[in-house]
Write a structure and sequence with these properties.
The chain is mostly helical. It is built from three helices and two strands. The N and C termini lie far apart (30 Å). The model has no long low-confidence stretch (mean pLDDT 91). The structure holds zinc ion.
């Protein structure tokens, strides 16, 4: 079994909380790196999004789920350190 992550390496959502159990790779197998909201059939669902854009989306989602605003900042500040965004760094 390949290395699996606890959190989606794109949005930071805990993978065990993903209803689909993770995104899918190009060959249809489960991704252990990205969640189903970010990654499907080997492709990012929002391929051109910036890390700031992702943080905004995740914050909005968390508030929708009833999380207080100050906690969403805490939750999203780790997003730039996730694998997807590291690859884009110069
Ligand atoms: Zn994700």
């Amino acid at each position: 079994m390949s290395t699996s992550h606890k959190k989606c390496q794109s949005c930071g959502m805990p993978l065990k909380r993903d209803a689909q159990g993770g995104g899918t790779n190009a060959d249809g197998s489960k991704s252990t790196t990205y969640c189903s909201h970010c990654y499907e059939r080997g492709k990012f669902l929002q391929p051109d999004i910036s890390v700031q854009g992702m943080q905004t989306i995740v914050r909005r989602k968390l508030v929708e789920f009833g999380m207080p605003g100050f906690l969403t900042g805490f939750f999203t500040k780790g997003i730039p350190r996730l694998e997807r965004w590291q690859q884009q760094a110069k």
